[in-house]
Structure formats: C-alpha cells, structure tokens
Amino acid sequence: MANKKIPTEKHQRAEELHEILQRANYHYYVLDNPELPDAEYDRRLRELQELETEYPQLVTPDSPTQRVGAEPLKEFAEVRHEVPMLSLDNAFGDDELLEFDRRVRDRLNTDKPVEYACEPKLDGIAISLLYRDGLLERAATRGDGTTGEDITQNVRTIGSVPLKLLEDGVPDVLEVRGEIYMPKAGFAEMNRAAAKAGEKTFVNPRNAAAGSLRQLDSRITAKRPLELCVYGVGLLEGGSLPGKHTEILQQLNRWGFRINSEMAAAKDIQACIDYYKELGEKRGELAYDIDGIVYKVNDIGLQRRLGFVARAPRWAMAYKFPAQEEMTLLKDVEFQVGRTGAVTPVARLEPVFVGGVTVSNATLHNRDEIERLGVKIGDTVVIRRAGDVIPQVVSVVAAKRSNKARNIVFPDHCPVCDSPVESVPGEAVLRCSGGLICSAQRKQAIKHFASRKAMDIDGLGDKLVEQLVDEGLLHSVSGLYDLTLEQVAGLERMGQKSARNLLDALERSKDTTLPKFLYALGIREVGETTARNLARHFGDLEPLMQADGEALREVDDVGPVVAHFVAEFFDQPHAQEEIEALRQAGVHWAPEEQGGEDRPLSGQTWVLTGKLETLSRSEAKDYLLRMGAKVAGSVSANTDTVVAGPGAGSKLNKARELDVATMDEDEFLEMLRGRGIEI
Fold first, then answer.
1. Which end of the chain is more exposed for a tag (fewer CB within 10 A), N or C?
2. 121 is catalytic
3. Best CATH choice for the domain 8-66 from the list 3.40.1190.20, 3.90.1640.10, 1.10.287.610, 3.40.1160.10
4. pTM over 0.90
5. Known binding site: residues?
6. Given CA atoms 268, 273, 275, 276 in this order, what sign does their dihedral have?
7. Rounded Cα distance, 153 and 123, in Å
8. Pairing, β 116-122 against β 290-297
9. Residues annotated in the binding site for NAD(+), as ranges?
10. Which is catalytic among the residues 5, 74, 121, 447?
C-alpha cells in the first residue's frame, strides 16, 4: 500500500516537534539545564511517534525518535561504546505493560507466564564503567547511546564506585552499566550550604548529579554527595555470568558494586503491576528520587531470543510514575500564617495534574527562595510534587515571561490579625508577632495538639477546629477540655451524637505519655524523636522545664538551636500557664524510665514491612522505640530483625538473602507481651 499524502499541517507539526524536542535535548543532555519537565517532553515525543507511525515518510535520520540524546560537549574526550547504551520504551499505564508482556510471550511463542526482574528507575545519569583485569580503566556517560564522554577522573572520586573488584572469577574485560545519582538528603544539605555561601543552588537531585559529573576539576566532584547503583552489563570478555538478570546483579554486588535493595523478581506480569503499586506507595519515603520501574525479562537466554529494535531492547520496559514536574501559570501569591507565626508565601496556580493529583497551590517557602528563583506573579513556572511532599515551585521558565509579570511583595503586617511582621536575625522566615492573639496561629497550634501523633483526639478535624475558633469558643489548647456538649452540638454539621463522641475522645486523650504531650505542645524543632529523647533523659516534665541550655544539650540529638527553643518555650509565662491549665483539666502521664542503655532492645535495628493488622505501623514503631531499638526504613547487613506483615515484599526478600531474623505480627505481639507490654 502506498504511503498516503501528508497534510500540510501534519508536516508543519512534525517539524515543530523536531525543533522543540531537539532544543529540549540540548538543554537536558548538553547544558544540564532542562527546559521542559520530563512529562512534557514525553508527551511531545509520543505525539511525534504517533505522527511518524501514521505517516512513515516523516521519519528522518535526525528525528528525535531515532536517537537517545544530544551529542556530548567537547571539553571531555569522546568515548565510543563497544556495546551501544540503548534507551527503553516507556509504559504509562497497566494496559501498556500488559501489552508489552503479550508481545514478549507472542515472540517467545509461549502461553506460560514470563518471569521479570523489577528495579526502581533511578532519576540520575546513566554511566558505563569498564574494568580490565578487575581494575577500573574508564568511565563514560551514555551521551547519544553510541558516543559518550570520558569522565573517569570524576567517577573515581565517588566512594561507591569500586576501583578494584572483589573476589575471584572476575572477567578479563567487564563493562558495567549503572546510574549515578544524588540522594535526597545529600542534595538538600548541598543546596543549604550553597545558599548560605551565596552560590547557585540546583533545581533537583538529577540536575545536581549531572552538573557534578561534568566538572572539569575532579576536586569539585569529590565534594558532591554522589552514589552509584548498577543495573546491568554491557561488554564481557574472558569470563561468564549467571543465567538470570537478578543473579547477575547479585554477582556484581559480590564483586563490590552497589545494587538496589528494592530489586525483586516477579513471577508474572500481574506481580509486576503489584510491585509498581507497592513501590509507588513508598516512593516518597525512599532516600533517592525514582521516576518509574524498569522491568526486564529475567532469563538471559530469553533476552537473546527477543533481541532489539533500532533503539531499545524488546525484553525491557520502563513503567513511568505519574509526572512529578509540570509547567503552569503562577496567577497570584497569598500569605499564610503557621502555628509558630511563620508567614509563608503560597503560589496560587492555574490547576495542573502532577504527581497523581490536581495541584492549584504550591509553597514558595520564604523571601530568600523567591529571590533565588527570581519568580514573579504572572510567570510560567515548573511545579514539583514528590510523593506526599507539599507541591513546590522549583524554577521559572524565563522565556515565557510576559511584560505584565509583577514582583511579589511581602506584607509588613500579619494578613490574619494585622500584628506587625518581624524579621528574626539569622532566619529567612518572617513571623507574625501576634502569638495566640492571632487566630491563624491559634488554629494551627490546636490542630497540631489534636493530631494523631500528638494527643490523638479522634473527631477533632481541621474544619471543626476552625469553627470553634471562629465562633469564639476556643482560645487555647487547654480550652478544648472546657467545651460543653451544648457548645459543640450547636455547631454546623454537629449533632448530639457527634458532640458526645468528641467529648469522649477529649476525655480519653487526657491519659497520654510524656513524649506525646511534649510533641503536642508544638515547641519549635521538637518532633517525635526529640520529644521522646527529652522525656527519657529527664524522666518527667518538672526537671525538663527547669533545665537550662547546657543541661538540654546533654540530650541525644539536641544541639544549641533546639536547646534554645526548648528553654525559651518553658520560660514563657503563657506556656507555663497553658501547661498548668492542661494538668488541672486532668491531662496526665506516667513518668518515663530515664536513661535507656539497659533497655531490652538497646543497640538493635529493626525494620517494619507489610501491613500490620492488630497494630498500626506507628504503634509498632513506638513500642520498639520505647524498648530502645532504632527503627530503620530499609534492610541491610546491620539489621537485627524484620517484622513482616501481609504483603511484605522486597524487604522480606532482602532479609532472607542477608540471613536477617524475621518474625510475623503474631510473633511480634508475643514478644511485646513477653516484655510486659499490654496489647
């Protein structure tokens, strides 16, 4: 069948997409300064692919669909990959992943399920590491997939990159592929230090990793918190590897390479979908950014049978998570007041779907952040939402700025109570000076006090708190315990039964623990862990209230700043009055056992995974912390015990691989009861 004629508008659109994508590639791969969010790039590329599928005559050698990226810069020596570093096809829904599995089984001519290797798709920089006789000879970027850049000196500075491989049996020549990335904590600390020094900060960890790897001075790279995680092998000479992808990664791990602890084998495509959902739920808790899952046919022999298409293997697919970055319009900026009086600028946006939800507001943090971004009202901005993190503005698309854009002006008086706004020396945050006179601070303080991890007052939601304050029925946290049935039942959407349930919940909340009470007070910088450490160190409230800064700094994880905030809080007459009012209302707790070196689980590290049925995850964590254990988020050789509930996945597998002790929930409950804890 002859090719059908290409309509003029289709031809023009293809040329336009060529230009957009080529420019985006240049900014992303060459300048390390992305112009388009990943989701926007993916959409444009898919549109071009669909046009070329409909009109094959549109396919040209320079089409962005025909290559991985842009050509490398010339400052580094060029490296030609012996085995091309291809990209992966993407799936954006379960249907597309199921279709991938169907194609795999059709090509293999089998109706049996295919086993897949599942790995998080790290949001970093693809890298090739060439080892000869077990020694690192060369490190190169992927570049355009055929030619990359020699960045050996920079890569040698990264601690997780082995310079010499471990154990025997290393092939004569081994080329390993992996991802160099920057963990979230390291990225945050690096940006804090840069901002303090008045230097440029990075937009996101991937951009920071790219910029760090492409420094001509390797001493700069050495100061950056980069990590390597390997995911495969390219060239192999004079040696052999196991027959499954997951087994190859385990072998690489034994030779000294870091592999992802979340890696797992899935028995069929449904297990792949389950893995995607499981990892998606804890995506925000991971120590690094990921933007999807990579699935590979696990059997290497089957991989060889499946082969490749022009730019991607037939045996692998990347299933992308909902986009975490999108572009939208900043329509206005409003200012909110928090429980500590912080006046925070909030961007009002043209609604945009990002990170799986529709976002219309995003934080701008403070005045320093606005100056760093150079953002104005009316700008087109890039919004980022990672996991459950509050959406934030991460950059401005300067090329789209109109001449109507206007500066963001901070208020000199509180937008809620009209009290003067103060600038505290050494802080970027402006604060309302109104204290509890300010209804916004009062509302936030009460919401925090009632929250689940604090006093856990069931039924006292945000809207009810706002009603109580707005109606003049509540002026402090202690006033919660003075509420009457008539007052509560008279509120909108509250009847006698709901009101009685709330008063019963308030009564139950009076029986609490000292750590929960300290956390509920809302002392600046005192979170759950610090509250627990303070309680255990001092044993009861009175000695804590009398402690000076020097005594406070003896507490684990309490430095000068936290010690200052704690001492300052307890020195305030109104804080002392509130605490006394709460105690008079009947709020009480048992003294804490001081110290902790001799607690039954002191020095041990535990991990919770899966869904616990009798206890919530936070309750189980609290019991472990009370007994002196540290509760970690991932399994390692240093883990003592893993508690695995129904649905436990990769963490349980990792524990078994490392021969770490495991117990189910029943065994965990039996252990707690054996320690005298009533469940």
1. N
2. yes
3. 1.10.287.610
4. no
5. 38-42, 87-88, 119, 142, 179, 296, 320, 414, 417, 438
6. positive
7. 22
8. antiparallel
9. 38-42, 87-88, 119, 142, 179, 296, 320
10. 121
